[in-house]
Design brief:
single chain; alpha/beta; 6-stranded parallel β-sheet; 13 helices; 15 strands; globular
Length: 344
């Protein structure tokens, strides 16, 4: 089969690899029907995720068709269409028993495209398939379902739920890339009074408005002044959806006393935590890796049309054009890319 393989030092190649095989009784093999690229994949290529070693097949967001299952798989059959979760869950360890699948100590967690081969390939092995692949309802298109592999549950769990968004809140989202836009979509489920998106790129500020932001503004002092003008003491909830020190530090400036800062972004460099300012303001700061425990709920809501993701996919490619797709996604400020979709 063909697969996108990390070569180290920022290099990658679409090359031949052996077809995956069942390694454990809990595995499933999927034919990849649709796959997308995550900002985390770009972080890997920049060297921000040193656990990814040369030779690794990249990718952790896919929709596929089951072609084979291990003897212990009980809920999936060949021919089933599934979304492959970015998180694998053994279901037995202490963390999985409390639905903290991202912290799985039984061989799961974030392993696809990280510590085991991923899904940017023609076929992929899905470990712990009963808990880590979700059967799709008939009629749900792959270009919608693939967003449930990572960005929707990530933004919902690590941003909206960790941030304790409530009806009437003022919510600020720093970064209007795919994760920030998904945070807008899922925050709106809780009826905040106002959503402010902070984003330097004009095309992404326009996208934020399209997805439901009430106000958009460039970062820096302009954002500080905008939030001050819209609130009494700052935002109730501020989400960091970029993964840079400047974005995190801006979040801590925009939050009100007693508010929440929910860090979603993947950080590759230290950020300064200004405790000399924050300690007296009762600010709660959360971090987290997605658990995907909410994926079944989000899947039902998506299938029922309770939120709209129709504009998230901006560029479409055939799977064999994945290197061009990476270039398009990596230069989003010029291409206007939000999510790119690759289909077999």
């Amino acid at each position: 089969m063909k697969a996108l393989v990390y070569q180290g030092g920022g290099a990658k190649s679409w090359t031949d690899r052996p077809d995956p095989e069942i390694a454990d009784a809990t595995d499933a093999i999927i034919r990849v029907d649709a796959v997308t690229i995550c900002g985390t994949d770009l972080h890997i290529l920049k060297g921000d995720v040193p656990a990814v070693t040369p030779g690794r097949i990249l990718g952790h967001e896919a929709v596929g068709t089951i072609v084979e299952v291990g003897d212990a798989v009980s809920t999936l059959l060949p021919g089933d269409r599934v979304v492959a979760s970015c998180i694998s869950a053994c279901g037995r360890c202490e963390y999985c028993r409390s639905t903290r699948y991202g912290q799985c100590r039984g061989g799961g967690g974030w392993i696809l495209g990280h510590t085991s081969d991923g899904v940017q390939a023609e076929y992929a092995r899905i470990p712990f398939a009963d808990l880590s692949a979700f059967k799709l309802p008939d009629g749900l298109a792959a270009d919608k379902a693939v967003l449930l592999a990572d960005i929707l549950p990530t933004s919902y769990e690590v941003g909206v739920l960790n941030g304790h968004v409530k009806p009437g809140d003022t919510v600020v989202i720093v970064g209007a890339g795919p994760i920030g836009l998904a945070a807008i979509i899922t925050a709106k489920l809780f009826s905040p009074s106002r959503i402010i998106a902070v984003e330097p790129a004009p095309v992404r500020r326009e996208a934020a408005k399209l997805f439901g932001a009430d106000v958009t503004v460039a970062p820096g002092e302009e954002a500080v002044e905008m939030v001050a003008a819209c609130t009494t003491d700052g935002a109730d909830v501020v989400m960091e959806a970029v993964g840079t020190p400047a974005a995190f530090e801006m979040c801590t400036r925009l939050v009100r006393p007693g508010g929440h800062v929910a860090n979603i972004g993947v950080h590759g460099a230290p950020a300064t935590l200004h405790l000399e300012d924050l300690w007296i303001r009762d600010v709660t700061i959360t971090t987290g890796l997605v658990d995907t425990s909410t994926t079944p709920t989000l899947l039902r809501m998506l299938a029922a049309g309770q939120f709209d993701v129709d504009h998230m996919i901006t560029h479409r490619f055939e799977l064999g054009d994945i290197e061009t797709a990476y270039d398009t996604f990596a230069h989003a400020s010029g291409t206007g890319a939000l999510k790119v979709l690759l289909t077999a």
